[in-house]
């Protein structure tokens, strides 16, 4: 659906050229929710604005829905942009227009009649849950409701692609979840391809099927969400994942474990950090460790979450038993697809 090929974006900065994008290539498939994540300044906005040519790249080609945007003239580009809706962090609503009239604006500009506009806007307001607020002004609705207006307006032109530029960054966690749930619903029901950029892994975790991680104008890692979450390859990805799956155990937990490890006259013990992703978390792996390997287990920390409907999480267990059984148990876990990290041993 979206093909970016070798995109470079160089801005003129006060201290010389700023290389915001350095040879980015990306293929986003029809019907998927694709997340782009990175720290501030990584180049995310530059990238997403390349997709509708709000930013014209210094080099490289952009193809959306089979049309090569970089070769179109102004009229061709205007037509192509109708396939691409966009929502923004600060909503960009017109304060002097009602909710209805904000959503109607792109249709008025496209020359639709009042009747056609009503037939298009009313169902959209229902879809985003704002049918009862059509006559309010932006100042009279909440941030989450404003973003719902933004979403309805973006959908008014019946686009094939929806670009989301930090659309939930100004919202509280609860409202963020409800807006993301709405985007998921739209993706499912309308089959819309959604590209969302964010600096929050929580956002990616809730909605993205696949993601790309950006750093200094380049994509440093990309893949299926569950795969990247469970087995990140790049240091930037790992550090961004700390927000949802902390790599380090809390200091008080480590302290308690040290005391347990240091207990005299006990068999060997290992503090194991297990990362579960996908189906292996349905298997009775922990009871295996007790039954098959005769280990004593003490769960010291953990969290199990969901990525794209699959269980995903980490568990820190203190396993105590004969050394060869500990070693065999670790191999058994790894064989079952669990990542095992030995944090401490005594
Ligand atoms: N119009 C511009 N002129 C000059 N430099 C720019 C311009 N727009 C962005 N930049 C620079 O390009 C780099 C990438 O910016 P971009 O906004 O794409 O990153 P980002 O990942 O979206 O960051 P943020 O989350 O802070 O918006 C930054 O160093 C930024 O300062």
Automatic annotation (TrEMBL):
Any single Pfam family the record assigns to this protein: ABC_tran
Superkingdom of the organism of origin: Bacteria
Residues of the ABC transporter domain: 2-241
SMART domains noted in UniProt: AAA (SM00382), NIL (SM00930)
SUPFAM superfamilies xref list: ACT-like, P-loop containing nucleoside triphosphate hydrolases
Keyword annotations: Amino-acid transport, ATP-binding, Cell membrane, Membrane, Nucleotide-binding, Translocase, Transport
InterPro entries the UniProt entry points to: AAA+_ATPase (IPR003593), ABC_transporter-like_ATP-bd (IPR003439), ABC_transporter-like_CS (IPR017871), ACT-like_dom_sf (IPR045865), MetN_ABC (IPR041701), MetN_ABC_transporter-like (IPR050086), NIL_domain (IPR018449), P-loop_NTPase (IPR027417)
GO molecular function, one term: ATP binding
UniProt-listed PANTHER family: AMINO ACID IMPORT ATP-BINDING PROTEIN, METHIONINE IMPORT ATP-BINDING PROTEIN METN
UniProt protein name: D-methionine transport system ATP-binding protein
Species: Hydrogenophaga laconesensis
């Amino acid at each position: 659906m979206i093909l970016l090929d070798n995109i470079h974006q160089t801005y003129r900065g006060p201290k010389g050229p700023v290389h915001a994008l350095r040879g980015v290539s990306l293929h986003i498939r029809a019907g998927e929710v694709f997340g782009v994540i990175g720290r501030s300044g990584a180049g995310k906005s530059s990238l997403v604005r390349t997709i509708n040519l709000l930013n014209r790249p210094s080099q490289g080609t952009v193809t959306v829905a089979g049309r090569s945007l970089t070769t179109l003239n102004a009229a061709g580009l205007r037509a192509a942009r109708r396939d691409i809706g966009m929502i923004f962090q600060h909503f960009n609503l017109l304060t002097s227009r009602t909710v209805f009239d904000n959503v109607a604006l792109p249709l008025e500009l496209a020359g639709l009649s009042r009747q056609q506009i009503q037939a298009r806007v009313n169902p959209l307001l229902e879809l985003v849950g704002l049918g009862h607020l059509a006559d309010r002004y932006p100042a009279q609705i909440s941030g989450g409701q404003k973003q719902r207006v933004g979403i309805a307006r973006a959908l008014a032109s019946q686009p094939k692609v929806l670009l989301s530029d930090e659309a939930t960054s100004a919202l509280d966690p609860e409202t963020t979840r409800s807006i993301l749930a709405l985007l998921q619903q739209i993706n499912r029901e309308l089959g819309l391809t959604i590209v969302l950029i964010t600096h929050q892994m929580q956002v990616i975790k809730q909605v993205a099927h696949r993601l790309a991680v950006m750093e200094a104008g380049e994509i440093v890692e990309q893949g299926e969400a569950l795969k990247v979450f469970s087995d990140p390859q790049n240091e930037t990805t790992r550090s961004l994942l700390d927000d949802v799956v902390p790599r380090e155990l809390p200091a008080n937990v480590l302290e308690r474990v040290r005391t347990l490890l240091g207990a005299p006259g006990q068999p060997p013990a290992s503090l194991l950090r297990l990362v579960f992703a996908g189906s292996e978390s349905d298997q009775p792996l922990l009871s295996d460790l007790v039954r098959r390997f005769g280990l004593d287990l003490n769960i010291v920390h953990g969290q199990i979450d969901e990525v794209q409907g699959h269980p995903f999480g980490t568990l820190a267990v203190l396993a105590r038993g004969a050394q060869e059984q500990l070693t065999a148990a670790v191999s058994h876990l790894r064989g079952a697809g669990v990542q095992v990290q030995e944090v401490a041993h005594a």
